[in-house]
Design brief:
Elements lengths: L3 E4 L11 E2 L5 E2 L4 H12 L3 E5 L5 H10 L3 E3 L5 H12 L6 E4 L6 H6 L2 E4 L5 H6 L2 E2 L8 H20 L1
Parallel strand pairs: 1-4, 1-6, 4-5, 6-7, 7-8
Antiparallel strand pairs: 2-3
Length: 161
């Protein structure tokens, strides 16, 4: 049963594009379908977490809007942090799902019980993932992964009863 769903941001929750104006203001595009997937996960009892390699006010704002309290930005070693979170929560890798799209996500994708990569992720991430989503990053990839987790948890919950 998946109890923790962890997301990278740029290239998974977004299409990887970052718009910056002359004053240094940053914009990112997030998909509402992904937001609904996150809400559905949370409602089902799955904790949701963000681990991003770069800090961003836009990411912090979106996480707050979605009620995600475990938000870690500017992380160089994502796997070390993920292992620390798992230990703190008393979780094994098999209880964790992770979605990522780039080389810095590969160690996490290999370590967790269920790894996802968007359809436009780098091949290195796709190769080590359990599932490559039909959708691209920023265009429903997180929702695809969320629905997969929900179905998996429901089927495991039903088979144990």
């Amino acid at each position: 049963m998946i109890k923790l769903f962890v997301m990278d941001v740029d290239g998974t929750m977004t299409d990887g594009g970052i718009l910056v104006d002359g004053c240094g203001n940053e914009w990112k595009r997030f998909d509402v379908k992904d937001g609904m997937g996150i809400a559905r996960l949370k409602k089902s009892g799955v904790e949701v977490c963000i681990i991003s390699g770069r800090p961003s006010k836009a990411t912090a704002a979106r996480a707050e809007e979605l009620g995600i309290t475990r938000v870690y930005q500017g992380v160089d070693d994502k796997l070390a942090l993920l292992k620390s979170i798992a230990e703190e929560m008393g979780l094994t890798p098999s209880e964790i799902a992770y979605i990522g799209d780039d080389v810095n996500d590969v160690p996490c994708l290999e370590w967790v019980g269920l790894g996802f990569a968007p359809s436009d992720a780098l091949l290195e991430a796709q190769r080590v993932s359990d599932v490559v989503t039909p959708s691209r990053g920023g265009y429903g990839a997180v929702r695809d992964a969320a629905e997969f987790v929900l179905q998996k948890n429901q089927s495991e919950g039903t088979s144990k009863g």
